[in-house]
Amino acid sequence: MKQLMTRGLNYVSMIFKGVVAARLWLVAYIVLILIPASVLLYAYSQRYSRILEEEVTRTMLQTLKQAEINLNHQLDSARDISNTILMNPKLHQYLSNSTSDSDQLDAMKELRILVDNAQTNPIVFRVRLYVDDSKLFSHERVNFFPWESIKNRPWYTDVVNSRGNLVWTGAYLENFLDDTQSARYIFSGIRVLRDPDDYDHMSGVLSIEVSAKTIENILSNIELNKEQNVFMVAPDGTVVLHNDKSLLGTKLKSSSVLSAIEQKNEGVSPIIEDNTQQYVVYTTIGSTGWKLVAEVPKNGISSRAASLNQFASVATLSGITILFLILVFLLLAFIMRGMNRRVQTVIRVIKREGMEGLDERSGASEGDFYLLEKSVDHLIHRVRDLMEETYKSKVQEREAQLRALQAQINPHFLYNTLDTINWIAIGHNAHDISQMIDGLAKYFRLSLNKGRDLVSVTDELNLAKVYLEIQQNRFPKSFKVHFDIEEGMDDIEMPKLTLQPIVENALLHGIRKSKGKTGSILIKARQEEGLLILSVTDDGIGMEPELVQSLLTEPRPNMKSDVSGSSYGLYNVNERIKLFAGDAYGLELHSTLGEGTIVTVRMTYKHSSDKPPL
């Protein structure tokens, strides 16, 4: 402890000496560079803030214009759909007064396809046709409505007077019988339909409806300021879209904003609203004539400009500092040339004579460089010690993890107890109990494996076979087992208790949870390109894709079987294989819900004749 305190004091002393040695350079830097640069930067920042404020507002206008282009594109797309429907000859056939009911029905079929196709467009929420009551399906109230139902709407007069041109309404609340939300805010592009036989006679109204949410999503992407207020108004000052739905259809109350946006099609105007300085950024949507308006408090713009100005000031000051450091570097370069020669001398001593030579040389040295040599000496020894400690800890950790994952309850005690129970069962002529106890004893004998962590593939397969025989007694005639084993497995060793947890999972979580609680299990073992490949296939209930992905990445200690549970689980087995063979190996799961699961084991293996590594 005392040695550590002494070493810490030495480090502090080194730092203090370095600061004292550089005090003249620090004073010169503050007087000659830092103070004059600060005065110049203050004057420069004031002018730069005004320029930045203008640039920020100009950027805001460009952002708003980009949103206006997007809105124009969406509304023009809806207009094109309206034109397509308008020019369709089947619509004219349906609207004609001289068309018979059968011809109307024939036209109606194609109109239905046309309307459905139009509604697949992302911008179109609903297509509506308002027609005379005498027309077929005029009371369908999904896409076809009676004409009389819209004559009391506030926009109806404008549509009639538009001479067939498309008229856009502001956002309004509309009910939809077939929509789960029942009512939602929409925009409508509406035009009058003329009778093909008598063009002066109105035969109906076509409405292309756009969800207000679609337009609001475009406006939500506008990022001008945290306190911004973005909305749309008609040329007469009527609010077309606003976050406050109670303002829809009303005149804009702010005369300052109205007078600002009436001046021209786009621009940035400063105003004072409620004793607060603001900027009104606005542009015109060409397809409708509406104004897209954003109210932004001036303090938000000023703070943004100030932050940019602060960045520029810091960048300038940093540049000056770098120039000063370059001058210092040139001076230090001459000093370091002399020091470099001594460092090279130390390196040559280390290479030629080792650490002992460095210790002998350090004893005869004096001054600051003596401290450097001692520090290098200490660093080398410390790195060497840390490398040895790290290697030992990693080896111990790996062995501890492998043995901890394979730890079980005391199998010796259980095996001896089962053997006693077996003889008692034989003495009482309970041969079925004796047979099952004998199978369980075999299971523990194979899993014990005389204390060894590795078993042959054949023994591992026998362990799985004994486990399934026990389960056959437990669940008679509920499953079948098939083995497909390649020859030459006796000489191959693998970690014990690898296959049995997978087989248990296939039986208890796959087959026993299926509807009929019956099925089959296929176990395969083969060698492939120097790897051991084991697979367990069941035709049980299968798993959801989300569960398949999580089984190998998350421990599931609470996952229990229908009766006894499993002390391992697929996650545990996968981690053991990685510890044994490396991270490139492990389990692979393929499962289809209702069809079954395939679990494949891929790992390197050892031959029983190989010598264990030192």
UniProtKB/TrEMBL annotation:
It is an enzyme of class 2 (transferase). SMART domains: HATPase_c. Residues 430-607 form the Histidine kinase domain. The chain crosses the membrane at residues 20-44, 311-335. SUPFAM superfamilies: ATPase domain of HSP90 chaperone/DNA topoisomerase II/histidine kinase (SSF55874). It is a multi-pass membrane protein. It is found in: Cell membrane. It catalyses: ATP + protein L-histidine = ADP + protein N-phospho-L-histidine. The keyword Iron does not apply. It comes from the Bacteria. Its EC number is 2.7.13.3. Keywords: ATP-binding, Cell membrane, Kinase, Membrane, Nucleotide-binding, Transferase, Transmembrane, Transmembrane helix, Two-component regulatory system. InterPro entries: Bact_2-comp_sensor_kinase (IPR050640), dCache_1 (IPR033479), HATPase_C_sf (IPR036890), HATPase_dom (IPR003594), His_kinase_dom (IPR005467), Sig_transdc_His_kin-like_C (IPR004358), Sig_transdc_His_kin_internal (IPR010559). Its main location: membrane. One of its GO terms (molecular function) is kinase activity. This is histidine kinase. It comes from Paenibacillus phytorum.
